[in-house]
Amino acid sequence: MGVLVFSNQKGGVGKSTLSVLFAHWLADRHGARMCVVDLDAQCNCSKSLARFACSIEARALFSEQPLQWPPAAGAGITLLGGSKSLVDLELARPEVVIPVFRRQIAQLDQAFDWVVIDTPPALGLRMSAALIAADGVVCPIELEEYSIDGVADMLKTVFGIQRRYNPRLRLAGIVANRFNAHSARQKAALQELVAHYSEFVLPAKISMRSAIPEGLAAGIPVWQLAKSSAREASAELLTMFDLIKQRIDRVPTMTGVAPAGPQAARKDLP
């Protein structure tokens, strides 16, 4: 059904957590065949999904060498894991490796129902490649001053790539993550976020709850935890994921804009 990227130019906002849980949700609740690509050298996504890893690593998607694609029969998750060596790709020639990555992702999109990509927390070749290859992007943020300051930069990146390289790219929404309902500062930050970016902010939030990382540490989504504290966390996540899927399903692809083509160099990227 598409290629969805979880991305932000600031770290620690929960993009890896949401990538993992969204993949679990689509596989568990919708019977989807999922492929998860971990482009973050911190490999948090890969740690949480280690039992779903296949023989192909994410780095191989930037190589011209033909790959033996993993089987996609039946519902479930297949992980193309990250590695520390992903950092080296930032020195590669974007006009060479980004078109290769885009073609490889297109093949995965044919083999699976959904491809979910977790990106590094900085604008560079890997994040740009993911957005150029994607159908949609979700931008998680924490409601802190520096995170909100970075929203404008992330939106500039997303819409710049949409305009110049990937006219089908859609912003599925900004996700207010790790919200502390007892913090007056965070409540004020949420109001400010909605005031400035109301058309992009999804009308739900995910609170800071210990059950979410507890489930990830156990290798399962929070809704599979047999404890009462997981129920509220699950309800918030499932509401948010429904909103994301609705946005992706209903937002039309941009038309009338020609992509710039695969020859763009890194200095031309937004």
Q: List segments where confidence is low: pLDDT < 50 over at least 5 consecutive residues.
A: 252-270
Question: Could you say what the CATH topology is called?
Answer: Rossmann fold
**Overall spatial form:** globular
* Strands, count: 8
Number of continuous helical runs: 9
Helix and strand string, N-terminal first? EHEHEEHEHEHHEHEHH
Span between N and C termini? 27 Å
Structural class: alpha/beta
Q: What Rg is obtained from the alpha carbons, in whole angstroms?
A: 18 Å
- Specify the CATH architecture: 3-Layer(aba) Sandwich
Strand order of the largest sheet: 3-4-2-5-1-6-7-8
Helix content: 40-55%
For the record, what is the CATH homologous superfamily label? P-loop containing nucleotide triphosphate hydrolases
Average per-residue pLDDT, rounded, comes to 88
**Most strands sheet:** 8 strands, parallel
Please state roughly what percent of the residues sit in beta strands, choosing from under 5%, 5-15%, 15-25%, 25-35%, 35-45% or over 45%: 15-25%
Please report the first level of CATH classification, the CATH class. Alpha Beta
Integer count of domains: 1
